[in-house]
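Training component of the fellowship. As part of building independent skills, the fellow (R.M.) carried out the full modelling exercise for a liganded target. The chosen ligand was adenosine-5'-triphosphate. The inputs are recorded below so that the supervisory panel can assess the work.
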Amino acid sequence: MSTDTRIDFIREIINEDQKTSKYKGRVHTRFPPEPNGYLHIGHAKSICLNYGIAKAYGGKFNLRFDDTNPETEEQEYVDSIINDVKWLGGDFEDRLFFGSDYFEQMYQWALDLIKKGKAFVCDLNADQIRESRGTLTEPGKESPFRNRTIEENLDLFQRMRKGEFPNGSRTLRAKIDMASRNINLRDPVMYRIVHAHHHRQGDNWPIYPTYDWAHGLEDSIEGITHSICTLEFENHRPLYDWYLDALGVYHPQQIEFARLNLGYTVLSKRKLLQLVEGKHVSGWDDPRMPTVVGYRRRGYTPESIQVFCDKIGVSKKESIIDVSMLEWSIRDDLNKRAQRAMAVLKPLKVILTNYPEGKTEQLQAVNNPEDENAGTRAIPFGRELYIEQDDFREIPPPKYFRLSPGTEVRLRYAYIITCEKVIKDSAGNITELHCTYDPGTKSGSSTAGRKVKSTIHWVSAPDAVSAQVRLYDRLFLKEDPDDVDEGKDFLSNLNPNSLEVLPDCKLEPMLGNANPGDRFQFERMGYFCADTKDSKPGAPVFNRIVTLKDTWAKIEQRGKEK
Ligand code: ATP
Ligand code: MG
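Fellow's submitted model of the complex:
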């Protein structure tokens, strides 16, 4: 993971704190997910940022579940989040914490605030509280319960805790200032009554703390120095500070940065859940999903996601990051380490009419031109081959240099062939090509140097392994999926062609033994990963991670040139 020491505004703050010894040289960050969904690439950004900073300053990094909302949280999400943080390289060592483990301490602190006259039990319901909160231009109205005595507040709050009152009948509120220009400071709710089962606390608690009350306390208990969060919490910082100051406890610094937005992607757990529940995707780990489990299944490496997160940096301004940056990161990573292979996705049979029947040659193919140590492998060559349908045109358009009747191409690692005859079925579909090969043009031999304009990949037909291959396109048709017509929602922008399943691709023999999760570059076709759910050695299923070139950028560019 990153130890990048570029100076962004967060590192500037930390450097200053180091200079003044504000936290005695300590740097301690955390990632605080709510376990109500799977992590997405925005969370990955936050993990890489928080862990990267802890690492760069020789500090510590905690994983802490902000599990204060029993109604939406589940153990399944806890497990997946722990797994994803580890996979991304966020090493929290033995510091896995749960906000709910601090409920008793938070409760005691709430009693302290009551005793200090800084909190009161309010009998207004949620609607009444909302109505009395005022607006940006008008102050709020004080609750009629604001001036209860400390004794009465203590009694009522203790009875709230014992479970004596029904859901929603009372709240504990901080007594701050109903006329504050910051609405968050208008006597905010600290506790709600919720009789619900908690995934860790069981039925222990009939009251639950709000995010604002709980979060700073959790940070304080853990000795966090820099509590990094997204910009929507900027207006909550005065409240974060108010609670810690009112209690007089250890006080971390909250710092906000702009959340990651990715083009053609939704990054909201609520919307991702809608995609899953509406069966628009096959699950949280559908390879088209922007979830960490989705990217992992698609074949992304943790390193490529770390590089992406580093490259986009942190900022105070919202922006939409181009997906091509993420795709660049995985291409760059796999270019260095992915084994090359030949695979024909949309096969067209080729018969080399002058190649002896029954003969097979073993040709040498380079495993990775970027890695001298990767060596070579043998691939079988014979009279019957498959090439891509796209590499042949009966009537070639201008500047088409691949195969067409009477023209020649080089077969990668093999010979130059010439197309002599096109065979069609009764419906006029091309079923095979009859070609001749030039035995004097074997790759690597002294006569091989004869120039032809194009080299194409191929697979020996009798040796080919059949496989399903899945190609993916963006899930949404618009860069901003929330840009919708009236009465519609983001689902109306779903791309109906985001998944293309190719049922019978032809792969070179070595690929038949791929283990789930193995990654390859299929020459000219992109980077592919053997699916971790559906692929088995002997019966491979591959997902395309990414194409070799940024074809989208080109298409968009072409669109603009028109
Ligand atoms: P969502 O908006 O998807 O529901 P969330 O903010 O509610 O996400 P949390 O589990 O509360 O999800 O988030 C955990 C941490 O991840 C928080 O610190 C939050 O600021 C950060 N985070 C969430 N989304 C993004 C994002 N798009 N970019 C950067 N950080 C993010
Ligand atoms: Mg949140």
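The panel noted the following from the submitted structure. The pocket of magnesium ion (ligand 2) is lined by residues 34 (CB under 6 Å). Residues 198 and 204 are 8 Å apart (CA to CA).
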